[in-house]
Amino acid sequence: MSQKRIAIFGSTGSIGTQALDVIKANPELFSAEILTAQSNDELLIKQAMLFNPNIVVIGDEKKYQTVKAALAQTSIKVFAGEDALAEAASIDCYDMMLAAIVGYAGLKPTLNAIELGKPIALANKETLVVAGDLVMQKAAEKRVAVIPVDSEHSAIFQCLVGEGRNKIEKIILTASGGPFLGKKPNFLVNVKRDHALQHPNWSMGAKITIDSATLMNKGLEMIEAKWLFNLDAHQIQVVIHPQSIIHSMVQFEDGSIKAQMGLPDMKLPIQYALAFPQRIANNFPRYDFKKPGTLTFEEPDMKTFRNLALATEALYKGGNMACVMNAANEMAVFAFLRNRIGFLDMTEVVEQTMNKIAFIEKPTLQDYFDSDAEARNFAASLLHM
Ligand SMILES: NC(=O)c1ccc[n+]([C@@H]2O[C@H](COP(=O)([O-])OP(=O)(O)OC[C@H]3O[C@@H](n4cnc5c(N)ncnc54)[C@H](OP(=O)(O)O)[C@@H]3O)[C@@H](O)[C@H]2O)c1
């Protein structure tokens, strides 16, 4: 494999920094060509000094001078602002985008990369939740591969390699259940931010960690899977598997089930997506079947974790519903992380917003932008923000 030039959008995040570890460990295979952050100028500068990319972009324009001054002795181009983030994705200086921005903010850069014909290693699930139909349609038009980084979707993708046109009966998305597995509303009502930020198996950014605690993350993943693998809603099943060893499964039309397994470590799906179709040898810890351990499976408790029920509703309804749900959820998680609302209030905000915003069956891209803005405004009014 010749050296692949990677544009990491969201390089200062949990996925972004782990991707840079993979690049650092495999300098003959990868280089970092674009690095971006929203506000973490210090880390962005450090990364730029170490990886010498072509371009860095800082979303927060107030930080431009600091980044520019720190990199003045280098040939690295520095840009700032939301528009610059999206425009950088249209500059033809890289071979693959790693979409690792969190939330709706990842949509425009990813669309621009697809427009440019660049394959996408997709961590930013919200891109497909918001506008999955249009994103995948554009990717098909441009013959651009969208390779999942999310561990569950990477598992499904790996199970499908070599299966050609063989029909999928269903996919089984595994969920750890998060830190509050087995808990009931009388417990959840008192949950505070710091407790919800402690995930049992994965170390991740704040937003996805809260989404994992509310099970919204699994709901977002169901919608992500629908678009990535062209599935009907009824072909997507969620099962709780607290050990996070089976990362997900595919059941084919003959009833045979393929699973992808391993220790929970995001570096593995990241490197798989960056190097696909090649696998890269590494010394990550291995799962040991000889050690005592049990793999268990159970039904998710959708009555307690109502976000999963709301996301299932959005999955079945289609149109702009998932976009609206996502916007309300981003606002609610933001408020929870600032201790402005309780754990169960997040679901209330999402549900009320889904009930309020007008349903559009076949949205255009502009409709998605408008639905996102309307939903955010309405959620903000509920949150008194
Ligand atoms: N972490 C995981 O293990 C994991 C697993 C599966 C999927 N994912 C998905 O991968 C994505 C990234 O997750 P993460 O955990 O890496 O998130 P994270 O640690 O919060 O990092 C997010 C990255 O996006 C940047 N960012 C934040 N807001 C932005 C905005 N408005 N505009 C532009 N850039 C912005 C951040 O910059 P600053 O650092 O400057 O704020 C940071 O570089 C999410 O969609 C998540 O669902 C993550």
- CATH classification, class level of the largest domain: Alpha Beta
What summary fits the major beta sheet? 7 strands, parallel
Q: What series of H and E elements makes up the topology?
A: EHEHEHEHEHEHEHEHHHHEEEHHHHH
What is the count of DSSP helices, taking H or I runs of 4+ residues? 16
* Spatial strand order of the main sheet: 4-3-2-1-5-6-7
List the helices and strands and how they pair.
Layout: E1 4-9, H1 14-25, E2 30-37, H2 41-51, E3 55-58, H3 64-70, E4 77-80, H4 82-88, E5 96-99, H5 107-115, E6 120-122, H6 126-141, E7 146-148, H7 151-160, E8 168-175, H8 185-188, H9 193-196, H10 206-214, H11 216-228, E9 236-240, E10 246-252, E11 257-261, H12 267-275, H13 306-317, H14 321-337, H15 345-356, H16 365-382
Parallel strand pairs: 1-2, 1-5, 2-3, 3-4, 5-6, 6-7, 8-9
Antiparallel strand pairs: 8-10, 10-11
Helix pairs in contact: 4-5, 5-6, 6-11, 6-14, 10-14, 11-13, 14-15, 14-16, 15-16
NADP nicotinamide-adenine-dinucleotide phosphate (NAP) binds at residues 10-16, 37-40, 59, 85, 100-102, 105, 123-126, 150, 202, 204-208, 266.
How does this structure look, described?
The chain has 385 residues and is α/β, with parallel strands linked by helices. 44% of the residues lie in helices and 15% in strands. The protein starts with a strand and ends with a helix. NADP nicotinamide-adenine-dinucleotide phosphate binds next to helix 1 and helix 10.
